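Re: beginner question about structure tokens

> Can someone show what the tokenized structure looks like for a real chain? I only ever see the sequence side.

Sure, here's an example I had lying around. Input first:
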Amino acid sequence: MGEIVSEADNITVMDMEASLEHLSRGTVRHVDVLLIVTEPYYRSLETARRTLPLARGLGINHIYAVVNKYRSAEDEKAVTSFCRNNDLEIIAKIPFDENVTKADLEGKSLYDFNSAAPVVTEVEKLAATLRERVPLNNSSASKILTKPNC
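And the corresponding structure tokens:
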């Protein structure tokens, strides 16, 4: 994997299982940004907490939390408090959205199913925030972080 992510011209997005194995084996040592996606549940939050020191130990410079599938203000508040207490910066908050399940059942991308869905809006904001915080050196690569032409 190091050969793929270490090439300067490439943006590679890896969706990894919720496990510390990738960090303990050093699989992600070449990444520029690590998004720790966490949900408002104990095991998910605990995994996020344990991920942070391992990622820092690998020298990953940009480590952020993405709060995913929160259903209420109480969920959002609990995860925000947890992240603050564990020195984990939140870069995005993505609410639970039935559109994700419906799109999947129809075999469509969420963007094609409902481009106005709250999840789509929040993911677009996440991409914009990443562009601001982690500038890309390759103009063609920056096109990857824009919404698709439909």
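Each token stands for a local structural state, so reading them left to right follows the chain. Residues 138-146 have pLDDT under 50 and may be disordered.
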